[in-house]
């Protein structure tokens, strides 16, 4: 009999929403789906034009890592790239988890990470974020009883950002605990914990090119941490896993960051307009610092179905405890966000705020 890792018995697997094959507005996975400037598109195409298909990718990644070091204001030996930030997090958990490791996750959270954690330990504890649509209070008292702490910041699915000063205080208070900070949405927020890597040896920050950089299909991410932690991760990292196309696209994006900033500014502008519309319709929402908004509305399933009729996909988050009747909406074009507001307004009698 072929034996399977017994820890897989407790893993249901990450279940992304079904997108089908239709041409739709994909506002469910938090990509930055705004139209790409043609000049920037040309730059990206040129970046991959001369790649040699027959060779393995550059295994040292020095060009991209040096550019990231400048971008993050860190040294090159504090950064490593991966095949997406999901892969980075998987490597981190593989490196630092043992069967007796206790992991604390601030809840609600990016649920994909649970599948990586449960391969190694079933000692997962949750600290519920209190009053998600209000004060958004984090309880840190449970940190003492755990070894590794995972925090998405800004939070996914709420979009709330926990101030870096609070994180720094926790790093100092618990120097023997490893803090993993997932900053997938940093560029939209503008606030970060990455500078804490310079002074603290118990923090790993993960980031991605899939969101603000609009390179989700390239699968490129990276982590920032002190070189001692990175040394352990590099022992098991596949040096060839980041393909040449992803590396070239990442370099081109960093070299032409003004295009990225323009897209981020437009997302934030559309976000502001959308929030104003939600306020006018008296719809509860979290004051998100990411590129999505979590709203609370009655009969959320009917809203999702109606939006799908308009060829707009959004993400049902009502299965999370405490997020009943909640849906997460990525920020798209002004036209797409206006259409969502129109649907909510048209059916307001059905879609009143859930309590």
Give the topology:
Blueprint lengths: L24 E2 L11 H11 L13 H11 L6 E4 L2 H12 L6 E5 L4 H7 L5 E5 L19 E5 L11 H10 L4 E5 L3 H4 L13 E6 L12 E4 L2 H8 L9 H12 L1 H24 L3 E2 L6 E5 L3 H10 L2 E2 L1 E2 L9 E5 L3 H13 L9
Parallel strand pairs: 1-11, 3-4, 3-5, 5-6, 6-7
Antiparallel strand pairs: 2-8, 7-8, 9-10, 10-13, 12-13
Helix pairs in contact: 1-8, 2-8, 3-4, 9-11
Pfam family, one: Aminotran_1_2
EC number: 2.6.1.9
InterPro entries: Aminotrans_II_pyridoxalP_BS, Aminotransferase_I/II_large, HisP_aminotrans, HistidinolP_aminotransfase, PyrdxlP-dep_Trfase, PyrdxlP-dep_Trfase_major, PyrdxlP-dep_Trfase_small
General description of the model:
By secondary structure, this protein is α/β, with parallel strands linked by helices. It folds into 2 domains: 19-36 and 258-349, Aspartate Aminotransferase, domain 1; 47-256, Type I PLP-dependent aspartate aminotransferase-like (Major domain) (Aspartate Aminotransferase, domain 2), CATH 3.40.640. It contains 11 helices and 13 strands. The chain has helices at 38-48, 62-72, 85-96, 112-118, 164-173, 186-189, 227-234, 244-255, 257-280, 300-309, 334-346, and strands at residues 25-26, 79-82, 103-107, 124-128, 148-152, 178-182, 203-208, 221-224, 284-285, 292-296, 312-313, 315-316, 326-330. The chain has a 7-stranded mixed sheet, sandwiched between helices. Strands 9-10-13-12 form a 4-stranded antiparallel sheet, covered by helices on one side. A two-stranded parallel sheet has the order 1-11. A hairpin with a 6-residue loop joins strand 9 and strand 10. Helix 2 packs parallel to helix 8. The longest helix is centred in the C-terminal third of the chain and has 24 residues, at 257-280. The radius of gyration is 21 Å and the shape is globular. The relative contact order is 0.17. The mean pLDDT is 94.
